């Protein structure tokens, strides 16, 4: 507001504030600002060379921000936090990013950036790097940049000619991700790397394996050519607490010494066999398995391994194609599970809970159980700690009649069993 004193250090621009440059410059003392958070439409005058003390620049989901608006960002020498998350029109970071020697966190998730500038290896204090593509198949061309994102001609040509967009065409963008430059091993302060693509060359995997301080790692592009080297790299990361892997026909069996402190594990892609080393993860708390339909899993062997992980409290199974028709949870298995999330299980006709199975389960979430003829759930009435069941159903309009009938039967099946449960859990429909 115009009544705001000019000594404010922390600035938030709301989406409904009229973008008035004169008012902005009269309200804000640029030299004092320490943090800026912008909601809604971006305007270039929000950022000034005078903001020498700026530490936080949060532009998440800002619209209208394009590459050339960031060309002078390297002058913000005290910047510690930079978020461009959700700014899809950003596909290039300037080389001056390397001047931000105090930068602690860089969040570029949901942008169109596929390659990081070589100068990023100068950021010796960088601890958290979050990346990843907004959509599947992010192909860019000059016309797309000009008309969809409102790029000027310079932005469009720079993005394409300087190689910022070329990898979108070169890469298999099923999984998205960014490419780390050579020398990434020098970023010794890194604790978090998310959304890195490693399919094109083994050097980046070897560089990651030398980042001994990593706590959280998310990679994509693991395949038959690089899986052994990746497993070797993981064996070197003894401090790792969270690991997310998206694989294309890769195998992760060669991890000889899995990180003993691993608490969160996410495996996606064509992994037909559950890696043997998972049974060694005695501290694992959260596990998500999301296999493609081209990969079949032996559920009895998998459930035997997972069921005896002593601290596993959150289990999510998504898109897994099992070989037999039943998913059976036996007595004394999964004793620490609190949240169980099931989505789109292929090959499964029924899910059965024995007396004494999942004794701590409080929340059960079931998605797309009406597809492929439907899945039956049995034993819900004997789950001793269940509090809530979330039933989410999707169906195509051309087959709405059939799938609506399945939905009604499934809902009645759940309601009947839960009514018999002494805990009187809540059934919610989505």
Structure characterization notes:
- The structure is a single chain.
- The protein has helices spanning 21-27, 142-148, 153-161, 166-170, 203-209, 227-236, 299-306, 400-420; strands spanning 10-13, 35-38, 56-58, 81-83, 105-107, 128-130, 192-197, 216-222, 242-247, 264-269, 286-291, 296-297, 314-318, 321-322, 326-329, 339-343, 350-353, 363-367, 376-378, 388-392, 426-429.
- The protein has 430 residues and is α/β, with parallel strands linked by helices.
- It is globular.
How many β-strand stretches? 21
Percentage of β-strand residues: 15-25%
How do the strands of the widest beta sheet line up side by side? 1-2-3-4-5-6-7-8-9-10-11-13-16-18-20-21
Major sheet description? 16 strands, parallel
Write a brief structural summary:
This protein has 430 residues and is of the alpha/beta class.
